[in-house]
Write a structure and sequence with these properties.
There is one protein chain. Helices cover 24% and strands 24% of the residues. It has nine helices and 17 strands. By secondary structure, the chain is α+β, with helices and mostly antiparallel strands. The strands form three sheets. A seven-stranded antiparallel sheet has the order 1-10-9-4-3-2-5. The structure holds FE2/S2 (inorganic) cluster and fe (ii) ion. The site of fe (ii) ion has 7 residues, from helix 5 and helix 8.
């Protein structure tokens, strides 16, 4: 491997830390001690996490564009819970969520070829494949085959089991608790609900997913720190390991936590800011790659949308908002965004989903630039994947029980603490009952 070209030295300005010490020390609920990852290798903790977090927090399961029309629906598999959900837009235009289970003998109601696969479509009613019981879009049971043989059954008692469902800025959230203790708006809190981004305009979506052999938090952690890119991804592109990384690279210059959620901002964003020889020929040709199209989309104006760049940093390149527990939105300076979901499957397995949202391409060039951006991101995610399966193996050896996290790993430390807090809170409430 040849050495990367030297990056011209630019400003040596350091970003100021908060007035008192480091980012980590700025948050009294955190400490600076080494962190245990027992919660990522313990099957018992996984069981607790399912009850304490995934059955109590609001979870994003999709966007309203997936159910544009009345009768539009999609299914969402949550294998770690485990459950399957139906998200449907009713004839009254309301979006609802139901458990995807027939009330007759428990068959999964909505699926096509393979029961474990998610599907989407549009319909007027849901009909069970087993004995034909039929439900309307509001979940009411409206047909029972040979009803008069069912001992005076009242169909009103056998509707689909509803799930709490609400929408924020077009993002559909569900809450599996019988009675959530917070509304979605309360749960998201002021930092997240301050975001007023034109999500509805970015309708060009690219999706990919991966089935990965690591705990969901281990994978999540690699997407909430920019400490690793110069090393793990640096050989792919010298921009990642430039000398002036604090000013122009992937260095988190601002952190903020609000309740269980957090954000990190960095100057690293789309490519094209540095000398041309830093970029691969295809990137130079397509003006895309690291990361996404380099040219701003139509939504980019002089003013950033409200809620973005909360630290008001110069050289802002992206915000990585981590919405508890397993959902992230990454906003890029060139006017597009990514979402990530980390769905637990077992204590050592997760389903990773990435969605990239762009303005609809105006021409072939736009379309190819978007595609190259996605291909690049997939490349990086694949590198993360291998390493995080290796991390899981290292942790499971239990040779080391606690690990030092630096200030750039503030979000990892915060996430770990929030997870433990939610589990502790759940355990406390269980013993009180
Ligand atoms: S299980 Fe659905 S109709 Fe029998
Ligand atoms: Fe990475």
């Amino acid at each position: 491997m040849t050495d990367a070209p030297k990056v011209p030295k630019q400003s040596a300005r350091q970003y100021p830390k908060p007035p008192e010490g480091s980012w980590t020390e700025h948050y009294p609920e955190l400490d600076t001690e080494p962190v245990s990852y027992e919660n990522s290798i313990s099957p018992e903790f996984f069981e607790l996490e399912r009850e304490a977090i995934f059955k109590r927090a609001w979870l994003n399961v999709g966007r309203v564009e997936q159910v544009r029309r009345k009768g539009g629906f999609f299914t969402k598999e949550l294998p770690g819970i485990p459950t399957s959900l139906i998200i449907v837009r009713g004839l009254d235009d309301e979006i609802r969520a139901f458990h995807n289970v027939c009330r007759h003998r428990g068959n999964k109601l909505v699926w096509t070829d393979t029961p474990s696969e998610e599907i989407s479509g549009a319909c007027r009613q849901f009909r069970c494949k087993y004995h034909g019981w039929t439900y309307d879009l509001e979940g009411r049971l409206n047909f029972v085959l040979q009803e008069n043989e069912f001992f005076g059954i009242d169909k009103a008692d056998y509707g689909l089991v509803p799930v709490h469902c609400d929408v924020w800025k077009g993002f559909i959230f569900v809450n599996l608790a019988e009675e959530p203790n917070q509304t979605l708006h309360e749960f998201l809190g002021p930092m997240i609900t301050a975001i007023d981004y034109p999500f509805e305009k970015l309708t060009q979506r690219y999706y990919y997913r991966g089935d990965i052999n690591s705990n969901w938090k281990i994978f999540h952690d690699a997407f909430q720190e920019f400490y690793h890119p110069p090393i793990l991804h640096g050989h792919q592109n010298p921009v990642m390991r430039q000398a002036d990384y604090q000013d122009l690279g992937f260095y988190t210059s601002y952190f903020q936590a609000d309740g269980p959620h957090r954000v990190g901002s960095t100057s690293g964003g789309a490519g094209g800011k540095l000398v041309p020889e830093f970029y691969n020929p295809i990137e130079q040709l397509m003006r895309s790659g690291l990361f996404g199209p380099w040219d701003p989309s139509e939504i980019v104006t002089d003013e950033l949308p409200p809620g973005l760049n909360p630290g008001n940093k110069k050289n802002w390149g992206l915000d990585s908002f981590q919405i508890f527990p397993n959902f992230a939105i990454v906003f890029w300076e060139t006017g597009w965004y990514l979402t990530y979901h980390y769905w637990p499957v077992a204590h050592n397995r997760l389903l990773f989903e990435a969605n990239a949202y762009f303005m609809p391409p105006r021409n072939v060039r736009d379309r190819l630039a978007q595609q190259l951006g996605i291909a690049t991101i997939k490349e990086y995610a694949l590198e993360d994947c291998g390493t995080l399966e290796a991390t899981q193996m290292g942790l499971e050896s239990r040779v080391v029980s606690a690990f030092p996290l630096g200030d750039q790993e503030f979000m990892c430390r915060h996430a770990n603490r929030m997870i433990n807090n939610w589990v502790d809170d759940y355990k406390r409430k269980q013993t009180e009952e």
